[in-house]
Amino acid sequence: MGRKPKNQSANNAYQKHSKNTQDKNVFHSKVKMISRLRGMRDILPEEYVRWDEVINQARELFKYYGFLETDIPVLESQSLYEKSTGKQTDVVSKEMFTFIDKDGDKVALRPEATPGVVRSYIEHGMFNRTFQPVKLLWIGNLFRREKPQLGRNRQFSQINVEIFGEASAVADAQLIMLGYQFLKELGVTTQVQVNSIGDSLDREEYVKKLIMYFRDRKIRAKLSVDDKKRLMKNPLRVLDSKDEGTQSALEGAPQLIDNINDEARNHFIKVLEYLDEFDIPYILNPFLVRGLDYYNRTVFEFWPMRGANSGQNADSAESVEEAISRQSALGGGGRYDGLVEFMGGRPTPACGFALGIDRIINRMKEENVPMSSAGQPDIFVAQLGEAAKRQAMTFFEELRKKGYKAQQNFVKDSLKAQLEMAHKIGAKLTLIIGQQELVDKTVIIRDMESGMQEVYAFSRVFEEIDKRLK
Ligand code: AMP
Fold first, then answer.
1. Record: fold of 45-199+260-366
2. 379-469: which CATH topology?
3. Could you give phi then psi for residue 298, rounded to 5 degrees?
4. Long-range contact set of residues 390-398: C-beta below 8 Å, sequence gap at least 24
5. In this structure, which residue's CA is closest to atom 5 in ligand 1?
6. φ, ψ (nearest 5 deg) of residue 467
7. What pLDDT, in 10s, does the model give residues 34-79?
8. Which of 39, 115, 416, 440 is the most buried (most CB within 10 A)?
9. Which amino acid residue places its CA nearest to atom 6 of ligand 1?
10. Does ligand 1 lie within 6 Å of residue 359's CB atom?
11. Is the backbone peptide bond immediately before 115 cis, with ω within 30 degrees of 0?
């Protein structure tokens, strides 16, 4: 019998859960509906409030720190990813959505952003820009043909930040600080895991030592089937395996951090000194290597932890879903000093990281982070009667132009239904215009909490709204 995959029971629970939620509320028509593809997700309108919040906060924070937003194509040449990410990595060998387009070109949906951003940096000669280093922010969708499970979809979104043209440790440390701070401000508690994987020669030497270590049959036998294959193809990946057997096999293994050159070690020490200075808590994780070939020196990840809002103390039992979700990093990155040159540009030191928006939002929900009320309307405009409706529509437009947060439902004629909606969306005031108000040039202001209604001359209405919304 093969080993039972560690996450199998949780996956079953997840699949059962999604099936139940899919079945509920679905109208069963005789016409066969075309469903969304496996692993692809919809974001429903109620969810979008959180998406907006995360994306807006990312824009605000990173732009404040001098990152400029950029965009790259969804579709690129397949070879871009094969060259940059490495053919041996899972992202490229198994997970890319690729096809041959009608011109016979091999193309791929972007599975990660860094290769496209690097291509764009080179293609547009950004090394020539007046302001150096070049700091870029990218937010968008990525596609990986992975096995869908909790926290793992085939389409997902990331926030990527990259710094080109800065070799000093302050860049690495600033990135780690920003990622940590960003998540903290969203209400998500994380732990920074950090390591140095040295430079490529260090790794070549280290891989030889690792392979020697696994020559011992007894040790090798503890590896999972997948990790045995990895040991042949991409031995460093064995280090960050989540498999318990592999983890126990690694207990006596040589550590990469003990095998890096002096310059890389000094660089790493400086990164850690900056982190101490910025007061960022971190864990040194000698087994952290990250999945992709292009990293060198500093690598880091943001791991979710139980936060103050979760309502559970750190020792209480966690659900299977929670355990899986905690095993999955919210994001990570590192230095990739060789990549720009390797991709055909000038030698350019660089570093960056990516945060997964879907997983951040899941964590916000798990940690009971309240939804932002930033977009919530303060005012509801209700109307009664055809002529009053027209007046209310004009009035609503005036509210919008003056910058009030207002809502309406002009297709409804019943006042009761309109007031119900005003309650549901949490409006503080409802402004009612009926036939009488139209004739008198007045508006009724209803306080939604107390239910008290008062009539005001139209000319005084904005003054009164301001007073009440203060
Ligand atoms: P990576 O680009 O693999 O380093 O991933 C960076 C972050 O993107 C991860 O920490 C996740 O938050 C997110 N991520 C990666 N793959 C997926 C996926 N298949 N589904 C959802 N989020 C993902």
1. BirA Bifunctional Protein; domain 2 (3.30.930)
2. Rossmann fold (3.40.50)
3. -70, 130
4. 391/433, 391/438, 392/433, 395/431, 395/433, 395/443
5. 331
6. -60, -40
7. 999 999 999 999 899 999 999 999 999 999 999 999 999 999 999 9
8. 115
9. 331
10. yes
11. no
Closest residue by Cα to atom 11, ligand 1, is 356
Burial category of 201 from C-beta neighbours within 10 Å (exposed 0-12, middle 13-18, buried 19 and up): exposed
Q: What is the pLDDT of residues 290-326, one digit of tens each?
A: 877 788 999 999 999 876 665 555 455 555 555 555 5
Atom of ligand 1 nearest to the CA of 302: 10
Confidence (pLDDT) at 143 = 97
Give the Å distance between the CA of 138 and the centre of ligand 1.
15
The beta-strand segments (E) located in 253-349 are 282-284, 296-304, 331-335
- At how many degrees (to 10) do helices 262-278 and 169-185 cross? 40
Domain ranges for the chain: 1-34, 45-199+260-366, 379-469
Nearest CA to ligand 1 atom 9: 331
By most ligand atoms within 8 Å of CB, the mutation choice from 142, 289, 353 for ligand 1 is: 142
- DSSP-derived secondary structure letter, 144: -
- In this prediction, residue 91 carries a pLDDT of 83
Residue among 156, 335, 357 whose CB has most ligand 1 atoms within 8 A, to mutate: 156
Whether ligand 1 lies within 6 angstroms of the CB of 363 is answered as: no
Task: Give yes or no for residue 158 CB within 6 A of ligand 1.
Answer: yes
How far apart are the CA of 141 and the centre of ligand 1, in A? 11
User: Which stretches of the chain drop beneath a pLDDT of 50?
Assistant: 1-11, 13-14, 16-18, 314
Same fold, 45-199+260-366 and 379-469: no
Number of Cα atoms under 13 Å in the Cβ half of residue 98: 17
Distance CA 49, CA 29 (A): 31
* Ligand 1 centroid – CA 219 distance (Å): 31
How many A from CA of 56 to the centre of ligand 1?
20
Q: Assess whether the C-beta atom of 78 lies below 6 angstroms from ligand 1.
A: no
